[in-house]
Amino acid sequence: MTDDAMQFSHDQADAYDRISALLKSVGVDIEDGLLTPPKAGGENIMAVIGKAGSGKTMLLSTLYRALQDAGVETVSGDYEGRRTKDRRTLAILAPTNKAASVLRARGVPATTIHRIIYTPVYDPEYEKIAEWLAGNGERPVIEGLTDLALDRALAFYNVHKSVPGALAAAGLRGSDFITGWKRRDEPLDIGFVDESSMLDERQLDDLKEIFPTLLLFGDPAQLAPVGQSGEMVFDRLPDDQRLELSRIHRQAADNPILDLAHALSDPALEFEDFERMVEEAAKRDDRIVWANRVEVDLMARSPVLVWRNATRIRLINAFRQVHDAPEDALLPGEPLICDGLELPLKHRKKRLDLEARGLIKGAQVVYLGPGRKPGFSRLHVMGAEDPSLSAASIVKIEKPDEEEPFIPFAARMGATFLHGAAVTIHKAQGSQWENVQVFAPDLFAAARMGRNEAGQPLWKRLAYVAITRASNRLYWVVRNRLAKPTGPLRVDDLRQVEPAPLTLEAQDAQEGVQ
């Protein structure tokens, strides 16, 4: 057992042992570091569930390291090594780029579910570089790529284990080497899925086709996916396939944000009592802020979390007004939320490329400026390893009391966006920000309505999800007011890479498609 495992609480240790036994039964012995070839057939699924601070991520990362030490190959979205008959594989997945980036920041090479279901077809030169970085090939000789650039790439990869990051260190972009996409036709071995409370049944079925062994990590106190009647995919598993973590660990014990989140489990707690707890916590700890107004500066990078759609629209329009944003254009630095892709079937490759780059429904994006053709935008996808891209865009800005949104500009087809200065708590699931503003009047409205979801008052579920999106500071906003910005919108704080010669724009120009 690893050093981390030796520090486990009793519930974590029990979960680790049961997962270890499951893995051993499929030929992966993490205790003795022994691997046997995979066996055909069979379906193994287990869920690790627990509230925020219960140690799910610590358990996941410890299991990842144990599998790595045993010789299991980790498959990520950026490159997959050559297949051999006896190799054993692991993929660590999350529903969104933002959720995957939270794990990557902790040293776990996570990717999105989409990047595993659909695999890229790479240029042979990329494969040479990737195999060399992984220690499976000779140092490549690539025209236009100097030895110094290769040394920089290797130095980066040895620390971060990211092929796209290594290429960026050498002045290249991994996406430029992708020649196409295909749905995965061969299964992998073991899949870890974080934020599995966001999965629906269709996504779970897709994952079962790829992974004979699946381990789901999820929080039962979050909001269930829309259309699943308050149920999460792990709720239907038998008791012996559900491992529950209940202890809150030392690193979370002095966190006032998590204290507030866990206080919501008290069935006798009413909304007014909870607000008094928030106010008292704010007097003791500056990580909780009792706010009489929305801080507009924070809205550009972390949206205000609301329940009601009307509140979201009002806050977005107030944000644009205080920045003097014109009605017929976006300002560089305005936040957007991807609302899906509007592309016909004949452009399936383009759809897969956009989705693989992070433009999936719910993705958070920052507008960098117009593209080289009308209707195109330069965008920064938050949480993506290769964040800068150019894409045909359809931007919709909703107006208060108006049924139809205002569209400042639009291509005939492409990625559709809503404004992202405020989002609903449902859409915020799976994301995390350093600073989070929760619009408390909306939660009060939910409490007044008396609605329940899965046996719990809806306002408590909403509050729990909203609060646990904050990693550093929670702003509990109690008034419908907006502060003035301290400066104009900016983009210089974002890691930017100039689009390569063959961007999606260039592809469209070649194909005659706008």
TrEMBL record:
SMART domains membership: AAA (SM00382)
One protein family per Pfam: AAA_30
Signal peptide: none
Occurrences of domain AAA+ ATPase (ranges): 42-295
Protein name from the UniProt record: ATPase
Source organism per UniProt: Sediminimonas qiaohouensis
Lineage: Bacteria, Pseudomonadati, Pseudomonadota, Alphaproteobacteria, Rhodobacterales
